[in-house]
Write a structure and sequence with these properties.
By secondary structure, the chain is α+β, with helices and mostly antiparallel strands. The protein contains 9 helices and 6 strands, in the order ββααβββαααααααβ. A 4-stranded antiparallel beta sheet has the order 1-2-4-3. Strands 5-6 form a two-stranded parallel ribbon.
C-alpha cells in the first residue's frame, strides 16, 4: 500500500492512496464467496454456483461491494500510518478499481496544531461561601408570599415535608449555598477557559465550525418557536441568526480543541464525558487563592 499526504493548508490534507496485489485480489475472492452463498442462479443450489458464472452475472455487484468494504479499511490504515487526526468524514474522489489495483484520493480536515499553554497551576480566585440570616429570611418570605400565608410555623414546614421551621430554614440555607457554589464554579471555569484560549490564534476546521453553528441555529429556532414566533418569521431571521451565532460557534470549537488536546496528553478518552473530565482535572490542578 502506498500513500502520500499533501498539505493544502493548516487544516486540510489530500491523501493519495494506491493498493495492489493480494489485498485487492483477496478482497474480490472474499466478496465472490459471499455472493455465492446467497446467489440464486437457475440450475444451481446456493453455495454451489461455479465461479465463472458468478463472474459473468455478478461482477458489477462484486465491484461495488469491494469498493464499499475495501476503501474504509484502507483509509483507516492510512490514517494510522500517517498519524492523521481527522475531524470529519473524507471526501473520496478519483476512485479506480480493477481486479488487482485500487486507487483513490481522500480530502480531509484535521485538527490544527497549536502550542498548548501550561494548564496546570492556573491561578483562580475564590470566596468562602457564606449564607446570611437575611438571605434565608428573604427566601422564606418569598415562599410565604407564593403560598399566600400569613405566618411560617411548624405546620407549614410539615406540609412541605420538614419536621419543623428550623429544618425548613436549614434546607433553604443549603439551597442558597449550593446556588452560590454553582455560580462561583461556573465563573471559575470560565476564567480557566479564558486563560487557556483567550489569546490563542488558531485556524479552526471549517467543518467543525459549520456543524456547531447548525446545532446552535437549530436550538435558537426551537426557542423562538416555543415563544410563539411563526415559522415564516423564524425563517426570515435565519441569516441574521447565523451571523450572530458564528462567533459563538467558533469560540466553542476553539474551546473543544484545547480541551481535546489536554485530554490526549492526559490519556482521557475523547467521548461525551471528556469536557467534564478535563475540567475536573483543571480545577484539581489549579492554584486556588481565597479572596476576602
Amino acid at each position: 500500500m502506498k500513500s502520500e499526504v499533501k498539505k493544502l493548508d493548516s487544516t486540510k490534507r489530500e491523501i493519495s492512496v494506491e493498493v495492489s496485489g493480494d489485498i485487492v485480489t483477496n478482497k474480490f475472492k472474499e466478496v465472490f464467496e459471499k455472493i455465492g452463498q446467497e446467489a440464486k442462479v437457475p440450475g444451481f443450489r446456493p453455495g454451489h454456483v461455479p465461479s465463472d458464472i458468478l463472474e459473468k452475472n455478478f461482477s458489477s455487484q462484486a465491484h461495488e461491494m469491494v469498493l464499499k468494504e475495501l476503501i474504509p479499511d484502507v483509509y483507516n490504515q492510512v490514517l494510522d500510518k500517517e498519524g492523521l487526526e481527522v475531524v470529519e468524514l473524507p471526501d473520496i474522489t478519483e476512485v479506480k478499481l480493477d481486479r488487482t489495483n485500487l486507487s483513490f484520493k481522500a480530502s480531509v480536515e484535521v485538527s490544527p496544531q497549536f502550542s498548548l499553554k501550561d494548564y496546570k497551576g492556573i491561578s483562580v480566585n475564590y470566596k468562602k461561601i457564606e449564607v446570611s440570616p437575611e438571605e434565608i429570611k428573604r427566601n422564606i418570605d418569598s415562599l410565604k408570599e407564593s403560598r399566600k400565608i400569613e405566618s411560617i410555623d411548624d405546620n407549614f414546614a410539615k406540609a412541605l415535608g420538614y419536621p419543623d421551621v428550623g429544618e425548613l430554614e436549614k434546607a433553604v440555607e443549603r439551597q442558597i449555598f449550593l446556588q452560590k457554589e454553582n455560580q462561583q464554579r461556573q465563573k471559575i471555569e470560565q476564567e480557566i477557559i479564558q486563560a487557556l484560549t483567550g489569546d490563542l490564534n488558531v485556524k479552526l476546521p471549517r467543518s467543525l465550525v459549520d456543524r456547531q453553528l447548525q446545532d446552535l441555529a437549530r436550538q435558537a429556532k426551537i426557542d423562538l418557536a416555543l415563544k410563539g414566533l411563526p415559522r415564516e418569521k423564524i425563517d426570515e431571521q435565519e441569516k441574521e441568526l447565523s451571523q450572530k451565532l458564528m462567533p459563538v460557534a467558533e469560540n466553542q470549537v476553539k474551546i473543544y480543541l484545547v480541551l481535546a488536546e489536554i485530554a490526549k496528553k492526559e490519556k482521557i478518552p475523547l467521548d461525551d464525558h471528556m469536557p467534564h473530565q478535563v475540567m475536573e482535572l483543571l480545577l484539581k490542578e489549579a492554584d486556588w487563592k481565597e479572596t476576602p
